[in-house]
Amino acid sequence: MLSKSSKLATTVAQEFFLRERKCFSTAMTLKKKHSCKLLVVGGGSGGCSVAAKYASKFQKGDVIVIEPSEKHYYQPMFTLIGGGMKKLEDSCKPTKSVLPKNALWLKDYAVKFDPAKNQVITKDGDSVEYEFMVMAMGLQLNFDQVDGLVDALKTPGVCSNYSPAYVTKTYEELKKFKEGNAIFTFPNTPVKCAGAPQKIMYIAEHYFRKTGKRDKANIIYNTSLPVVFGVKKYAEALMKVCEQRNIKINMRHNLVKVLPDKKEAVFENLDSPGSHLTLNYSLLHVSPPMSSPKQLKESKELVDSAGFLDVSKETLQHKKYDNIFGIGDCTNLPTSKTGAAVASQLKVVRMNLDARMKNEKLPATYLGYTSCPLVTGYNSCILAEFDYNGQPLETFPLDQSKERLSMFMMKKYVMPHLYWSLMLRGYWEGPEVYRKLLHLGLC
Ligand SMILES: Cc1cc2nc3c(=O)[nH]c(=O)nc-3n(C[C@H](O)[C@H](O)[C@H](O)COP(=O)(O)OP(=O)(O)OC[C@H]3O[C@@H](n4cnc5c(N)ncnc54)[C@H](O)[C@@H]3O)c2cc1C
To answer: Which pLDDT score is estimated for 442?
Structure first.
């Protein structure tokens, strides 16, 4: 005789089994073959913008977007959410609402690429044949590559602005912080928004000042890089900010282990392999190691030796397959990976893809424009803008390396509107026109 609870467990198990079998058979029977003129892989910042551009030009269904996520996040807002200046829901919209109505959305992962056959297979087993493809798969966050980090993120004191799963914890930790080391890290991999690991540090420092806790906080920035920022003009400005605010920087230190029981973080000294620095933390903000998404990395014909989509840095066309273009973080473009860079790349992709579709010479060249609003507190921001050569390419006719309230207001209030209303609809291709106007055509 089965007890009541065993009966319940059996029923749940049977239901689970039936559901699984149904899912399995559904997946087996629903394998579909699609074909389209333009396939866009990834429906984030780059994918949405490209899809919007072409869906409005083409017939319904000519554009297919493969994107697994139900939700679309405006990731640049995560910095402000971590500082308690915005809510997570302010940064999020349903993917359905941001993709163009005229495009077909396959809510799935692209898992296998066969560029010689112009074909992509999805996780559910659907196949998509395309004439042209734009790849916009972003970056993968690899929290599991730091020993103990995944578990540590569930414990007090450890947080990360990089994921919607943890970003709201950052502000909770700022509020809870009483005293001790507040450590901020930068990993030993390419990252998206290279300024984000330190923006939250300046916000935390300001928060501690506002709430009378600053005297009790040692603020430490442990970065794998040999500089605080890749562009000299802004690096000098940021070094001054750190000096004025008594922030200690340990260059070339990479987080390799977190021991939440002891509240210790272990860093490898990259200039002296094998030597480690162990620090106690009260607060540990982690920027995780990142890579291109697994499914892309495994497509050896499409990627370079580091696993990024191998495109021409001038035209954004794939080096081997000329009907494939890349945009955004998943590419090997040697510039800082940001949404601002994506907007400028959009213009180049649009012009060159249009030309390729007509078998004409590719007319547009990307100069590597990227931008990073380096928020330095609750009312100040340095707006870094630069090109492939690390040369400033500033939009406004003033010294943008100065901390300014105006730039902060732009980051907080103007940029989100620009993103949702213009960029994702394919109407924002970067500030080049405004830069030229404001500089009287001189740059
Ligand atoms: C904390 C933080 C702060 C930032 N601050 C700024 C800032 O101030 N300014 C700025 O300009 N940028 C900032 N960024 C960076 C900016 O968000 C990214 O550079 C930008 O979103 C890149 O666009 P993307 O289209 O390349 O990638 P994403 O927007 O990340 O989109 C990639 C998409 O690909 C999808 N995908 C992944 N794998 C697959 C697959 N196998 N099949 C199909 N789809 C797949 C993903 O689900 C995702 O939707 C910040 C980012 C973070 C995390």
So the answer is: 67
